[in-house]
């Protein structure tokens, strides 16, 4: 199944070029009082929501997908976990280009020794919300990545059991301001984590380690690779991360980007695709174009 969140946080079931509005399926979610759970309640109850959505879909309104404003399919992640330098060719291009490494000695390490990093959850948006670039005097880069979402709580998870903890997959864009600061800081402005266009449930993708992915900017192909080239695949990333902290439903993993990262600017149009997931279109503008107090 392919679930999207659209417009005013309505829930949709994607069927080709149309979406079934199955927001009524959210009625199966438990009620909570403060303090609210520190995880995404939809993802934690995805099986129940999916069963209800499947039952009501035939009688639910059909909407043209092209008319919808797509939000992040995960509304309340507890963590956005990101994998640095997880493709060998990208690791080498970073080491070879001063504009990418900024003389940061940490970038000479491997993912096994430098570990993972966290992005602010406030940086998360969907494809229809666009990217609002900051620090326009510096280089802002695109990074296309396979993203996956954790479906249940786990700690010290072995790679052999790790796939049981995946709720589904999406396309991720990890937008990056180049500079000397810590990567978590440079990658956490509002809108610098794009997730979408929807969540494909894990039963639809047998092997996330054999997926073509690519990104084009204004029609020009910039990155093209396959997840078979990941240094640490999905299962190993779950094992690595859960050896340090508990994973919760709705936690998002960005698995790393291949070679070919390059600059984006206001006015650009991004098209990102991953095999068996789909394609998402994302517009780029300047953060100054967004009125004060309004999220991009």
Strand content: 25-35%
- The global form is globular
Distance between the termini: 28 Å
- Mind telling me the C-alpha Rg? 18 Å
Reading off the top of the CATH hierarchy, the class of the largest domain is best stated as Alpha Beta
Secondary structure category: alpha+beta
| Order of H and E elements | EEEHHEEEHHHEEEEEHEEHEEEHEEE
> In which range does the helix fraction lie?
10-25%
Q: Which CATH-level-2 architecture of the largest domain? A: Alpha-Beta Complex
> Mind summarizing the main beta sheet?
12 strands, mixed
Count of distinct structural domains: 2
Average residue-wise pLDDT:
94
Oligomer: single chain
Counting DSSP H or I runs of 4 or more residues, the number of helices is 8
Fold and architecture overview:
The chain is an alpha+beta fold and 296 residues long. Strands 1, 2, 3, 4, 5, 6, 7, 8, 11, 12, 14 and 17 form a 12-stranded mixed beta sheet that branches. It has 8 helices and 19 strands. It folds into 2 domains: 2-70, no CATH class; 80-289, Fumarylacetoacetate hydrolase, domain 2, CATH 3.90.850. The two termini are 28 Å apart. 17% of the residues lie in helices and 31% in strands.
């Amino acid at each position: 199944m392919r679930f999207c969140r659209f417009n005013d946080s309505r829930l949709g079931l994607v069927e080709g070029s149309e979406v079934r509005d199955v927001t009524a399926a959210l009625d199966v979610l438990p009620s909570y009082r403060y303090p609210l759970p520190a995880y995404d309640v939809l993802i934690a109850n995805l099986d129940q929501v999916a069963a209800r959505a499947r039952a009501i879909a035939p009688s639910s309104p059909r909407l043209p997908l092209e008319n919808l404003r797509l939000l992040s399919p995960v509304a309340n992640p507890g963590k956005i976990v990101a994998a640095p330098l997880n493709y060998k060719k990208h690791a080498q291009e970073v080491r070879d280009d001063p504009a990418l490494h900024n003389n940061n000695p940490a970038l000479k390490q491997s993912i096994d020794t430098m570990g993972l990093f966290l992005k602010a959850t406030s940086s998360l948006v969907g494809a229809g919300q666009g990217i609002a670039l900051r620090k326009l005097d510096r280089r802002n880069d695109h990074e296309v990545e396979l993203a996956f979402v954790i479906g249940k709580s786990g700690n010290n998870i072995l790679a052999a059991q790790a796939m049981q903890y995946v709720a589904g997959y999406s396309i991720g864009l990890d937008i990056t301001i180049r500079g000397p600061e810590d990567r978590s800081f440079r990658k956490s402005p509002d809108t610098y984590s794009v997730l979408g266009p929807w969540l494909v449930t894990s039963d639809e993708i047998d092997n996330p380690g054999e997926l073509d992915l690519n990104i084009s900017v204004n029609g020009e192909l910039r990155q093209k690779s396959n997840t078979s080239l990941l240094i640490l695949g999905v299962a190993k990333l779950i094992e690595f991360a859960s050896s340090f902290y508990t994973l919760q439903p709705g936690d998002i993993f960005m698995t790393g980007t291949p070679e070919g990262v390059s600059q984006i600017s206001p006015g650009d149009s991004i098209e990102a695709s991953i095999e068996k997931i789909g394609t998402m279109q994302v517009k780029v503008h300047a953060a100054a174009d967004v009125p004060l107090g309004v999220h991009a």
